[in-house]
Amino acid sequence: MASGALHATYGFTAGRKMAGPPLHTCEIQQPRAILSRVHMLFHAIATSALLYYRISNLLHGSVPFVSWTFITISEMIFAFIWALAQAFRWRPVVRTVVQENLPRDDKLPGVDVFICTADPTKEPVVEVMNTVLSAMALDYPADKLAVYLSDDGGAAVTLYAIKEACEFAKSWIPFCRKYEIKTRCPEAYFSSLGDAERLLWSKEFKAEEENIKVKYQFFKRNVEKAAEVEASVRSDRPPYVEVIYDTKNNGGVEDKSKMPLLVYVSRERRPSRPHRFKAGALNSLLRVSGIMSNAPYVLVLDCDMYCNDPSSAKQAMCFHLDPNISSSLSYIQYPQIFYNVSKNDIYDGQARAAYKTKYQGMDGINGTVCAGTGYYLKKKALYGRPNHEDEFLDDPEKNFGLSSKFITSLEALNGKNVVNGSENLSDATLEEANNLASCTFEENTKWGKEIGYSYECLLESTFTGYLLHCKGWKSVYLYPKRPCFLGCTTIDMKDALVQLMKWASGLVQVGFSRFSPLTYGVSRMSLLQSMCYGYFAFTHFFSIACLLYGIVPQLCFLFGIPLYPKVTDLWFAAFATVFVSSLAQHLYEVLSSGGSIRTCWNEQRIWMIKSVTACLFGCLDVLMKWIGIAKASFRLTNKAIDQEKLEKYEKGKFDFQGAKMFMVPLSLLVLLNLGCFIGGVKGLISGRNIEEMFGQGALSLYILVLSVPILEGLVPKMSK
Q1: CA distances in angstroms from 414 to 255, 392, 393, 570, listed in the order given
Q2: Any binding-site annotation on 123?
Q3: By CB distance 3.0 to 4.6 Å, which of 49, 220, 225, 411 could disulfide with 574?
């Protein structure tokens, strides 16, 4: 497989594809791919030898049956998940874009931006409005851009705040365009993140900037005061759609001062009706936007993930407008980058393994997973298969619901280019928008089943992206030098584990459903791609393997029961090779992606902690749902920043406050390991065979060193 750039072209003449200048390049990471394949072979041989030793001794040797059975099961789980993970390493690619070769602004297609918020007490309103402002300020023609805010809390303060944000945007957007500001989130711009853009400017700029800063502080203060007075969520409410800014107001305004369409949507919510969480909100936005702006593409953003590079839309169009791939291209996924990750990053908030390794690997085999935010999606992909996007329009009312306006918009979307405009924003359109946002509209339709975002899983975007790949759609992963989107990661153990437990529960549920990647997926996509999705679905079973590995060897070490070959035995080399090989591979991937040895150590430690806590509880959550003890619920991650927690995080100290549920298995395992290690060492001193017990002693010591932060967290509690 030769290394090189695979160039794409864009151009249309009378409906025919024409060769043109390249819009993007794709290059295989050849050294990384070769090294990974060599390592796969080497590690697979060592793992096979290890399993052969285990199983043959278990079946034919005189070994303790119960302990050897448990340890064999755990090692088989490790081997199974490792095998699935190799698909990520088969063909990693890196992409770049050539924006200069895009068509003129008046030839670009429309883009709708969807931003979802649910609770102003957990998602600070000022932060949400900063995301809205950054989206409104994208470097894209204002008449081709529309921003929709879905307020699933129906909070009065959110409606008030978006109106205030719109007023501030009338000053903020022209300022950004005039001086070509890249950091177009005002909170970020006026912080240390925007320092580089405020250097070497004229006195005129300084004066104008100071004026903008005063206006922003006034806006921020008003919104924060309103949030202190009223920030409650209404769980029983009618639908409400309001146009906050209509593009007809751009008439006679110079281009730099023009603003995009801005719409507030609060869909209907009734306690007796299914809510469908974020998937329901996104499907409502699809319908409402269809009769208002009807852009063919949509950018989906979390409310705390602001636009950090205004050119992200044009970068995405370098792929969507390429006639060689556009017919089967569903979405362009950007990485989630976080501005508040500390240098030490003790909770692995940057998710390096995902965004710098796994996503690039999936990109080389027809497309990466959908991360839920920071992606540009072709709307037609949600309505059918490649080249069969209109298959549900044969019986539109049965499939899409009773709305002639929305069905007309779908026909237009499939027939000709439709640009954003305000001519459709009549009172009748707003009335119909409220109907489309009602909780009864989807009854007896295919919304959430075969159309739109799927309701089968609480991880709506990830699961919907998986279904798109099963239907034959492809996706692209773009990791530009300047992060296109920046968000806020969790800074304490509780929020990090709650978030992971939600993901684990949803993914494990998919793994055991009729949509399992290893049955449903493997028959509809490539083997390698189904292996990647299989990894995401089953990787949380590391929790079972880690739990067994955290109990069985330690107890056997305490009582002098050997589980590994003598250190002088040739078979011991297989175990040592697998252990060292795994660490070496991890270290190589960390260093080659810009990390350090400290990064590698932190990832090892937090992986162990998460495996026996959040992943374990995620698996138990699926079990409880299956037997009917628990029901599906959406756990909203708290995005409000606590100053005390922030100080601990920046100092590299673990904060276990509020994580009592997760701390129970973790604390028990750490204390068990400590007690067994001390008892086992005493046994070695008193005359046990060191050669037989060396493997267990080394393993116990390694886990003990990884557990130091947990022990440090337990000491103050014990002293109290």
Answers
A1: 30, 12, 10, 66
A2: yes
A3: 49
